[in-house]
Amino acid sequence: MKPTPSSCIDFKKHLDRFIEINDAEFGQILEYFSIKKLKKHQLLVRAGDAVHHTYWTKSGLLTSTFTAPDGKEHIIQFADEACWITDQNAFYHQAKAIFNIAAVEDCELLSLSFENREKLCAAFHKMEHFFRKKANDSFTKQQKRLLTYLTSDSQQRFELLLQEYPKLMQRLSKKTLAAYLGVSRETLSRFTKKG
Questions:
Q1: Which residues pair with residue 96 across a beta bridge?
Q2: Other CB atoms closer than 10 Å to residue 28's CB: what's the count?
Q3: Quick check: helix, strand or coil at residue 114?
Q4: 174-181 vs 154-164: helix crossing angle, rounded to 10
Q5: Across the chain, what does the average pLDDT equal?
Q6: pLDDT tens readout for residues 101-145
Q7: What is this structure's pTM?
Q8: Residue 62 φ then ψ, to 5°
Q9: What are the phi and psi torsion angles at 86 (to 5°)?
Q10: Where on the phi/psi map is residue 105: left (φ > 0), alpha (ψ -120 to 50), or beta?
């Protein structure tokens, strides 16, 4: 199913944060995307599979997780509305996924294949510019999270989570939030009582 400009106003606003496009260009850009719907708990990407698409979250919430050899699951990313998500290495290098990406809630996504992304960037240099600026923005956030994880205590990591994802407390279980922060559920409960 193809998205329509009237159903993707939030995506236009997202693009407008990084580039200037008119309504006609936006309609043409949407031609490269398709709509993907997921039910709660459904997998979008499975570790070990090929990854041919990247996704923009129109509605819903997803998590990207990595399962270590010891069986421990690590939450790498949350993607709520207006966030992009995929297994980056698998998508850009046409490799096998190492992450599982699953819907925490029912989701509606804009899906962009690797092939269509290349065609889109060739046809609209503004979109090439968008993806470069968006990648820079994402790298900065990932670096900040990594430094926070390496140098900050669990309270500071919790505060960064609230800053980046202010509405997640109501949308995720304490178990999931605690796993993301690398703390026990009891520790997380202490943080939430302070707030």
A1: 50
A2: 15
A3: helix
A4: 120
A5: 92
A6: 999 999 999 999 999 999 999 999 999 999 999 999 888 888 887
A7: 0.90
A8: -130, 160
A9: -170, 175
A10: beta
Find all residues with CB under 8 Å of 76, minimum gap 6, and list them. Answer: 64, 65, 66, 99
Instruction: Indicate the pLDDT class of residue 195, thresholds 50, 70 and 90.
Output: low
Domain containing residue 23: CATH number: 2.60.120.10
Q: How many domains does the chain have?
A: 1
Q: Which amino acid is at 160?
A: L
Domain limits for position 106 = 5-126
Residue 154, pLDDT score: 85
- For the record, the structure tokens of 85 come out as 């998500």
**CA 176 – CA 75 distance, rounded (Å):** 8
Q: Does a structural domain hold residue 86? A: yes
Least confident of 71-85, 102-116, 117-131, 173-187: 173-187
Whether 74 maps to a domain, the answer reads: yes
